[in-house]
Amino acid sequence: MIRVQREDFDPGRELAALTAGNHKVGGLAVFVGLVRDMAGDETVGAMTLEHYPGMTEKMLERIEAEARARWPLEACLVIHRTGRLEPGERIVLVACASAHRQAAFEACGFLIDWLKTKAPFWKLEEGPAGAKWVEARESDDEAAARWAPEEPDAAE
Amino acid sequence: MKLLYFAWLRAKTGVAVEEVTPPGEVATVGDLLAWLKGRGPGYAEALADLQVVRVAVNQEYAEPNHPVGPDDEVALFPPVTGG
After folding, report:
1. Is some CB atom of chain B closer than 8 A to the CB atom of A79?
2. What is the pLDDT of residues A43-101, one digit of tens each?
3. Separation in Å, CA of B16 to nearest CA in chain A
4. C-alpha torsion sign, points B76, B79, B82, B83
5. Domain A2-139: which CATH number of 2.40.50.180, 3.20.20.360, 1.10.10.10, 3.90.1170.40
6. Which of the ends of chain B has fewer CB neighbours closer than 10 A, N or C?
7. What value of ipTM does the predicted structure carry?
């Protein structure tokens, strides 16, 4: 399941709902991304997340389908927020449930790595020198490439 | 053809969404980018370095040789930075 939303989410409640009633789940791995107050050496007052409505959901659904094809997942949840967020606020949640921990951990890592390089979101950071669009990082491409082979129609 | 611009491509072109009718010889993503560059200084600046411009045709990532037509939705944006 994927969700793109402006409002915050409650990780505890989301995880409980994700696995409720499914006793085949033996492992639940979760990643929660937060807004930092520093980018390199510069302080960040806030950031605004922009996205491409329509394509964002399509790409997230495709990435989830790819994770489900690769690992035996019982449940899967991706929530990504948009709009203006301040340091400490939650940006993203990725949770994967499986019978055993290895599939849950791996699928969770895969989902966040692919999300970061394929889902059309952009961060605008507010710093002391004004607002600045965050540049894509090569280390993110490398992290995503660990999970190759890539779909032929996904760029980067 | 519907064009969408995101992040700094929107800021530099000054356009978020527009409807355009490129000349008939514009058949691919590459042709479209070359044509757009000539539409004004904002476009020229936004499209100066195509290494940092990603294109999606009908919400699918597309390479320069991908065809484009009058009914397509074409989005231009920088490499993504979510998560």
Report:
1. no
2. 999 999 999 999 999 999 999 999 999 999 999 999 999 999 999 999 999 999 999 99
3. 11
4. positive
5. 3.90.1170.40
6. N
7. 0.96
